[in-house]
Amino acid sequence: PLQHCLFVALLSQTILDNKGAYTALSTLENSLFTKPCSLSSMECCTISFSVPKKCQKAREHFATVRTQLESLKTKFPADQYYRFHEHWRFVLQRLVFLAAFVVYLESETLVTREAVAEILGIEADRERGFHLDIEDYLSGVLTLASELARLAVNSVTAGDYSRPLRISTFINELDSGFRLLNLKNDSLRKRYDGLKYDVKKIEEVVYDLSIRGLNKESTVGAGGEK
């Protein structure tokens, strides 16, 4: 019957489209997680003097990411973003974290959602198609907080006593911002609940510096370090 033929044709096209999408997504994931000492391993270099060079190299990798995201965008109808959102949600969240980490290392500021979207070559406005969902942005920022908590500890080990104080200020401001949000997403809410442990971990590092008398040295050197 004609209806059956149309259904089979539609199903076949859907399978082909999804195959192309999965190929594009797989390529994107591989570039993100398999390159040695690339974006996903930036933390190994954050307390060295080569931070600017590493950040520049990371931004070069984002050029590859933009190309792969551009390919991914062509595999899905623009008006069906959320139908397939789960396929790339985790990857985008990870990319947000990496972009936020690079920007923090460069300027010790929080990257905006619009800036991340520009770095990734996608839209910030959901009405314009393939975009950076606000919850994906927030999840990536929360991952940044966890990474900065580890960086605070590693900085002390490396003898950089000023950085934990600056990280503490940054994380406390971030926590204050999240407190203003009414988070209803269960997954995002759980991620946010973990922020208090990051705050506590950094506070313990700062307190340890204080009782060891190293915070005075940190305060003096904070301006030049930055």
TrEMBL record:
- Its GO biological process terms? RNA metabolic process
Where is this protein found?
Cytoplasm; Nucleus
Instruction: Give one Pfam family, short name only.
Output: Translin
Predominant subcellular localization, coarse grouping: cytoplasm
GO CC annotations on file: cytoplasm; nucleus
Give me the residues that bind Mg(2+), please: 147
Q: Which GO terms describe its molecular function?
A: endonuclease activity; hydrolase activity; metal ion binding; RNA binding; sequence-specific DNA binding; single-stranded DNA binding
Q: Which domain of life is it from?
A: Eukaryota
Matching Gene3D superfamilies: Translin, domain 1, Translin, domain 2
Q: Which UniProt keywords apply?
A: Cytoplasm, DNA-binding, Endonuclease, Hydrolase, Magnesium, Metal-binding, Nuclease, Nucleus, RNA-binding
Question: Is Transmembrane helix among the key words of this record?
Answer: no
- Record text on subunit structure and interactions: Ring-shaped heterooctamer of six TSN and two TSNAX subunits, DNA/RNA binding occurs inside the ring.
Q: Which family does it belong to?
A: Belongs to the translin family.
Function (record text)? DNA-binding protein that specifically recognizes consensus sequences at the breakpoint junctions in chromosomal translocations, mostly involving immunoglobulin (Ig)/T-cell receptor gene segments. Seems to recognize single-stranded DNA ends generated by staggered breaks occurring at recombination hot spots. Exhibits both single-stranded and double-stranded endoribonuclease activity. May act as an activator of RNA-induced silencing complex (RISC) by facilitating endonucleolytic cleavage of the siRNA passenger strand.
- Per its record, how is this protein called by name? Translin
